[in-house]
Amino acid sequence: MRPEILYSLFADTTRLPGVGPRIAKLLETLAGKSVVDLLWHLPSGIIDRRFNPRIAEAPDDVIATLIVTVVEHRPGRSRKQPYRVLAEDESGQLDIVFFNAKPDYVMQMLPVGARCAVSGKVEHFNGRAQMTHPDHMVPEADAQSIMQVEPTYPLTGGLTQKTLRKAIAASLAGVPELPEWGNKPYIAVQQFPAWREALLAAHAPGSLDDIDPHAQPRRRLAYDELLANQLALALVRAHQKRQKGRALSGGGQLRRKAEAALPFTLTGAQATALTDIYRDMAAPERMLRMIQGDVGSGKTVVALLAMLNAVECGAQAALMAPTEILARQHFASMQPLAEAAGVRIAVLTGRDKGKARDKLVAEIAEGAVDIAVGTHSLFQESVAFKDLALAVIDEQHRFGVHQRMSLGEKGLAVDTLVMTATPIPRTLTMTAYGDLDVSRLTEKPPGRQPIDTRTIPLNRLAEVAEAVGRKAASGDKAYWVCPLVEESEKIDVAAAEERFQHLSRLYPDRVGLVHGKMKAAEKDAVMDRFKNGPLDILVATTVIEVGVDVPAATVIVIEHAERFGLAQLHQLRGRVGRGRAASTCLLLFGSPISETGRARLAVMRDTEDGFRIAEEDLKLRGAGEILGTRQSGLPTFRLADLAVHSDLLAAARDDARLVLTNDPDLKGERGAALRVLLYLFERDAAIRYLRGG
Q1: pTM for this structure?
Q2: Whole-number Å distance between alpha carbons of 304 and 410
Q3: Residue among 138, 104, 102 nearest 120 (CA)
């Protein structure tokens, strides 16, 4: 269904001159399979070849283009020795050096007696100027063809700048003129070039300013990508809102019973969020709402009260969590409140097998279970509900959108509530969850004490281990999180095991170990011994980042804290401070530490506000890594930088909403151009909603 005008852009890169299967594979690794992927692969630097000194004036380690006369060829005496070409101008001599040279090729490019232009880095060796493997060698008459600025691109192993530039140049040569899809008054005010003009300019920088994200061509391309993103989300939202919902408006009896059993009163933020949720559930359209709550802000209670509202109306509710630990923890914290309300709640995870699982699945299908809590097991085909009316999805970014929709399809006009304990910057919320209304929980329940956060150099590790031992001896419990070595769980586990052995020698029989390679039952057993039994110190990888609740834990040590993202450090710190005792977070850092690492630790020391931390994380690391790792639910941008282009995002969001208000099916002139934009940025799923799919 893609428009014919885009066919050439979505052709395989093997259609480009000089790109065979081997080069195409490298291009795919670097950017993607299609011609359009190369267009989105923008320059990251430049080489300026316009500097044209005489040989004697050429400084060391600088790219220069020299006009020389070739004097003599001097082949090496053996294959290991370099091949040299002696050249000169009126100011001095230059050695042009080749290793593993092909003599015939060198003689053809640099004939004796010819005037040639050679371009490359000049170095001085034993007082003589030399240029090793020039980037360009052409006759003097063609010197102007190389005396210009060349873009340089991010590469992958086996691919050279020359090969990549040639492929990108061929891609650019086939770029068609496309209809203007932008808001014309906005384009005029911003003084943006047309799309094709912007693309060509972005790949032909004349200075370092031209590769800055603030450069006009780059801003134009970022606006286009963000407009495609916002329009796609707006279409998804419109499609879901058009689907008939069901009005769920309970009398409040069950909710009041659960609230009466709470050991605290609801915060103002919780009450506001619940007002929004009850209003959404009572409306005839489907609810699509996200609760963003900082660590310890009470999202689970809000979710339970929303689910009780559905149960009051004679329906069922389900809560899906990304891990077994988190699912069972939600169940444990909600069960006493559900019992107080006289409601049956059950938990279903991958651990449940055989007859017990079959019995539970049958009870969910019969409606004997009012609230089902579980992992992805809940949206398996074998699990059916009698009347599912509300689906709650925790840690939404751990699930793909399709998984979210799969649970919603298990009932009739199911309302959806998603929760995240990872505070997300407003700009990222707009790009990832623009199809959802958002409630923010910005308060902590009364009685929670601030966490004392300190930064300590790693060379004081022995002191820290001793202090942790003293705390454990006094009855407190402590986490010790091991360094994020790299994107390799195997290495992370090795680091955790080494620290476990070290601490076990100091404190025999009091140290536990959990990591992602352990089986769920084994992990749960260690966690239980830490929470309720003899273990005082738990050594862990980031497997404890989300959803571990041990009120007696008052200390967390994070080794090599400078290697973690801010959002991840904040999540880890949230494992302590969950009881009423004062808690401490010790961030151990190695030397040397980068400026970014230092800034990150300073933010952690200065604030516990997860939303401020998320905004700082966006500034320091960019959107691609905002949650510590690239997660399935978040979009990745090739052209837009959310830390820089937030003004463009706001404009794109407003424009997308206005467009769909005036032309919901994109049938008008601009609507047709916007369809091209959606296909160009591969938002094909949004197009399906236009066709009623």
Answers
A1: 0.70
A2: 19
A3: 138
